[in-house]
Amino acid sequence: MFVLLASLLAVPAVDADVMGSIFLTGHDPDFHANEGANALGAQHINQAAINFIMNPTFNPFVAGGDKQFLFVECDTCPVPAGHVDGVPGINGSLPGFPAGTTFETHGAADGLATALTQLGTKYSAIVIGSDFGGMLTQADLSLLDADSAGIVSFLNNGGGLYAMAETAPAENGLASTGFYGFLPFVVSASPLNLAETGYTLTPFGVSLGLTTTDINGNFSHNVFTSAGGLNIVDLNPGKEIVSLAGRGKVPVVPEPGSVVLLGSVLLVVGALVRRKIKA
């Protein structure tokens, strides 16, 4: 009873047959699709991830004819050393799908807040650039994290999300806090800059069309310390998780007020149960 009650309070009522598609990676293929030793491999990662989150069999927005996604980065910011504008990398990974037709780019300084309200209407998926290599800034990430509830609702209605590496300033990242905070079920991500040598794919990763050549030859910038219910795509030589993907309902972390409400309800239920036992 307690588990059922908690679930009813914490998870929105959505169609159980509709599932969101998520791909998270510690690689930064927005950068390496144009820079680095293995541009083709990085392009293949982008292709596999975007195809996964925009598969019309699972994404009802794509099936309904909306084939445009939102790409998040600060494309109006000065580009520091070690970073590039991610748009050419995404564009180059999607032959025949130019920017402005298949995707639009928005950051915090350029309409991101408004664009997030258009998930599920104008955009069928959201692609989030890396903060090392690409141009995801703290301002962009903070806006995403603040809209976690909206993003989760979008996913639970069948939308798709692909997010690339998020590291830390000490590792040359442009963001410093709230990594992957827009997905409350991701327990933890840890910064780790590592040359891609000896990386391996899981059978699930192979099923996405990736090869070991695709995930080696560049650099990755974070690992995941929990799968959060997703499937592991690839691992570094230390068997740390580099990429995750999966489909399903996204659990919602209750707001503090909801936690208080839940606690109060459980106290009442507990009292009733104890009263029944004594009777």
Strand order of the largest sheet: 3-2-4-5-1-10-9-7
Query: How does the overall form come out from the CA principal axes?
Result: globular
What portion of the residues fall into strands of 2 or more residues? 15-25%
If you average the pLDDT, what whole number results?
Answer: 85
What low-confidence regions span 5 or more consecutive residues with pLDDT below 50?
Answer: 1-14, 255-279
Order of helices and strands: HEHHHEHEHEHHEEEHEEEH
Give the radius of gyration. Answer: 20 Å
Number of domains: 2
What kind of sheet is the major sheet?
8 strands, mixed
How many β-strand runs?
A: 10
CA-CA gap between termini: 20 Å
- Count up the helices: 10
Decide which structural class fits the backbone: alpha/beta
* Helix share bin: 25-40%
Explain the overall architecture.
This protein is of the alpha/beta class. The protein folds into 2 domains: 1-16 and 257-279, no CATH class; 18-248, no CATH class. The chain has helices at 2-10, 29-32, 39-53, 60-63, 87-93, 112-116, 138-146, 148-156, 203-207, 256-278; strands at residues 20-25, 69-72, 103-106, 125-128, 160-163, 189-195, 200-201, 219-224, 231-235, 241-248. Helix 3 (39-53) packs across helix 5 (87-93).
Layout of strands and helices, then pairs:
Elements (H helix, E strand, L loop, with lengths): L1 H9 L9 E6 L3 H4 L6 H15 L6 H4 L5 E4 L14 H7 L9 E4 L5 H5 L8 E4 L9 H9 L1 H9 L3 E4 L25 E7 L4 E2 L1 H5 L11 E6 L6 E5 L5 E8 L7 H23 L1
Helix pairs in contact: 1-10, 3-5
